[in-house]
Amino acid sequence: xPRALPTVIPGRDRPPTVICPSMLSSDFARLAEESQRMxxxxxxxxxxxxxxxxxxxxxxxxxxxxxxxxxxxxxxxxCHLMVTNPKQWxxxxxxxxxxxxTFHIESVLPSGExxxxxxxxxxPAVTELITLIRQAGMHVGITLKPETPVELLFPYVTAGxxxxxxVMTVKPGFGGQKFMPEAAAxxxxxxxxxxxxxxxxxxxxxxxxVATAAVFxxxxxxxxxxxxGASDPGEAISTLRAAVDKTAVVP
Length: 251
Ligand SMILES: O=C(CO)[C@@H](O)[C@H](O)COP(=O)(O)O
Prior knowledge:
There is one protein chain. The protein has ten helices and eight strands. By secondary structure, the protein is an alpha/beta fold. The chain has an eight-stranded parallel β-sheet with strand order 1-8-7-6-5-4-3-2. Helix 8 links the parallel strand 7 and strand 8. The radius of gyration is 17 Å and the shape is globular. The site of 5-O-phosphono-D-xylulose has 22 residues, from strand 2, strand 8 and helix 9.
């Protein structure tokens, strides 16, 4: 069983704020220590970026490292798969102790077809992948690159097939890039349609840009440089959380 997802607080217009340091910005040689430190400083989840050097031009960690980390941490492992074949790694990640398995829709849909695909009908390859992730005992996250239309995700959210949508606010592949507000605007479209959906943003999120993401409706915040690169990461976590909480309407 994966660790539980946050539940909606009565009277609030969206699910609770979840702060996820991106461990891509940590010293990988000290991953266990750094992960422990993030949780002690108030982080909710650990965001683990998995890159295969093919889907994106960078290579990071895979299931073996995540399995090693699991021996040192009971935290929620939020795994973002930037890989060409997400189906290939499902069992390995489930065994390694991943809680959330977030895949890119672009890695499942044939690239030449993305523009012409319907936003009304689910694609069988995507639903099959979602079923396999769930059967393996993980929560399901779906994500998209900044240039991919958000409407392509609608069939899976409408059908209640996914637990979280990750809106990428940079081109996936590297930490330390500039936040793209036009990509973050996809959160508004999702939040208006699904008030209780977990909506995650990732890429260039810091104390200056987080309010934009939160006003658009994001409640799950990934930050690498802004937390792990801060002189006081605990303060950075609190500041990000407070900025998001401030935008949540309490009637
Ligand atoms: O997935 C990615 C990059 O592809 C991110 O998780 C980055 O690691 C975020 O880093 P910052 O932009 O916050 O430095």
